[in-house]
Amino acid sequence: xYQRRPRRETxxxxxxxxxxxxxxxxxxxxxxHRAAVAEVLVTDAMVLGEDHFLVGSQWPRDHALYHPDAxxxxxxxxxxxxxxxALVYLAxxxxxxxxxxxxxxxxxxxEITDPGALCVGGRPMxxxxxxxxxxxxxxxxxxxxxxxxxxxxxGGRRCGRGSLRVVALDERSYRIVRGRIGxxxxxxxxxxxxxxxxxxxVGRLRNKDSVLAPGSTADGWLMKPDLDHAILFDHxxxxxxxxxxxxxxxxxxxxxTHPAASxxxxxxxxxxxxxxxxxxxGELDVPTRLVVREDExxxxxxxxxxxxxxxxxxxxxxxxxxxxxxxxxxxxxxxRPAGLPVPCA
Length: 345
Description:
Mean pLDDT: 87
């Protein structure tokens, strides 16, 4: 049904720019579940072996939402979105999952192991994902459950890892799973209309990109994404997508970890890992409350912070995220502490 690249049987070789991968054009937008061509990141894929692939992607120098930070580090959520698109593309292109099936995310995690490799330069960045596919619940033709594990590299330099687990359902199965039995009830938002947090405080550039609003308590937060946002809601949906929840978690984490960086001599922090568990559908018409807790034990590196972020609708925990924020030391190269992420040169 879909054209496949020739198989390459040699496994375990070092990642490097592969001339067989094409970075000249994107794949069809419908194969990655995107309505806008401009939001397609995957450019190509090839089979390396049984359930083993190499996926090519081109990251833009700039992006309306997933833009580089002030120090030209690529947005880590660009990696997360690439993992999502890679899984969906391989499901349709290689495994023949019908285009009409609905994809539901269960969990996603990613880790940036070498932030210095993801500095934005003078041209778009070609990246490669070495990907392993694993079936977790395969019951064709109605249900396809799978996990994709990936290793990220740029120019042969390994710099990250991640995974995503989903289930793809036909319309009938989706409606059964999607039923609101035992879920949060649709209720009117009793909170007074509140302005979203200023975008600069949550690491965003435009007012409409902020998804956070103050809650009813001093330490309470509400997630209020713009349902007309052209990227967060690229196409119609009946629930909060995983990437929207991840954006909410990222913005609250940024808000919690960046006050010190606004002062002279302050240390900037960067999100280096996140693990999200989706436990229930997030309804669009139910208030979503965010709660953050800090791991008092701290991280493994000096200055590292670990945050646990939860999203709740009523008393229902719909998603949870464990995140790690690492410091970036702006000292001369020879004086930077070993093992810490470094800013772009």
